[in-house]
Design brief:
This protein has about 300 residues and is an alpha/beta fold. It has ten helices and 14 strands. Helix 7 runs antiparallel to helix 8. The radius of gyration is 22 Å and the shape is elongated.
Length: about 300
């Protein structure tokens, strides 16, 4: 997949285009992208996705910004996994936010991306004040020579699939529900960084994964599997939180204790799959009490894998 940071001033090469934030790349997104790539193959045009960085709601609502399900790197990989040919990352800034709906159609869709077919969600809005909608796109397309198709929201097992629904499932600790909405276990990817190495002094060394955002969509202790270390997922137990017993620094960290793993993995880029929530993070009066609880967490995770082998 080709990735473009920004939108060209002009393109003469047509494409089949969809537009959206695609946070999480859940089942609904996957259905849309599958239809996009099928349509592109049928017409002989490349499939293209236009997404935004930052999320427009992050730009407009600094205090109540949505918690991201995926980092930009994770989103790029998820979209690439769906077989898309091109990904355009539009910088959502003051200039972009000021575009009228008419300017968005002319400058972005027609001139910048040369869209021949546009596939959008049925609730898609665009342009300053969110004045643009499906009817406006259809009218513009009939004049400019591109077609527009609306995709209805996917309902899976009686529930509307959305990024908000995934966030709610994660906040409730319902990992199987989140996995059903996503079509896979929820995961966080990142590079292993050096930590304070307290874990190894109490018998539970951890891989400290760099978190890209200050507000992960889940907190607590989890049974996990880890990809990127071996030729198969590796079992472990993970903590996402502020470590109140150690330092309570306020910034969340992701620490993973890998079962029966004795090799250094600093610098490795890992994907941590969250399979089951065990409990919320707690503060303990002593390091000994914390160590005893970590041992119970590890036993619980091992029992999970005894019932559900990787």
């Amino acid at each position: 997949m080709q990735v473009f940071r920004g939108i060209p001033e002009r393109s003469d090469h047509g494409c089949v285009l969809t537009i959206g934030n695609f946070d999480g790349v859940h089942r609904g997104h996957q259905t849309l992208l599958a239809k996009l790539t099928a349509k592109a193959q049928a017409t002989g045009l490349p499939s293209a996705v236009l997404t935004f960085e930052p999320h427009p709601r992050e730009y407009f609502t600094h205090e109540n910004r949505p918690i991201r399900l995926t980092s930009l790197r994770e989103k790029i990989q998820r979209i690439a996994d769906q077989g898309v040919d091109r990904l355009y990352i539009g910088r959502f800034n003051t200039r972009f936010a000021a575009l009228t709906a008419e300017q968005f159609i002319e400058d972005i869709l027609i001139r910048g991306l040369c869209a021949r077919q546009v596939m959008i969600g049925d609730d898609f809005r665009f342009g300053r004040g969110r004045k643009g909608d499906f009817a406006m796109l259809q009218a513009a397309g009939s004049q400019a020579g591109f077609t527009v198709e609306a995709m209805h929201t996917l309902v899976h097992e009686g529930e509307r699939v959305s990024s908000s629904a995934v966030r709610s499932a994660l906040a409730e600790g319902d990992m199987p529900h989140a996995a059903r909405l996503l079509g896979r276990p929820y995961s966080i990817s990142g590079r292993v960084m050096h930590g304070d190495k307290i874990g190894r002094t109490i018998g539970f060394p951890t891989a400290n994964i760099q978190l890209k955002h200050r507000s992960p969509p889940l907190m607590g202790i989890y049974t996990v599997s880890v990809e990127g270390l071996a030729d198969r997922p590796w079992p472990g137990v993970a903590s996402v939180g502020v470590r109140p017993t150690i330092n309570d620094a306020g910034r969340p960290t992701l620490e993973v204790h890998l079962f029966d793993w004795n090799t250094e993995c600093y610098g490795a880029h890992l994907k941590v799959n969250f399979l089951a929530k065990q409990r919320d993070e707690e503060r303990y009066d002593t390091l000994e009490a914390l160590t005893a609880q970590i041992a119970r967490d590890a036993d619980q995770a091992r029992a999970y894998f005894a019932r559900n082998p990787l």
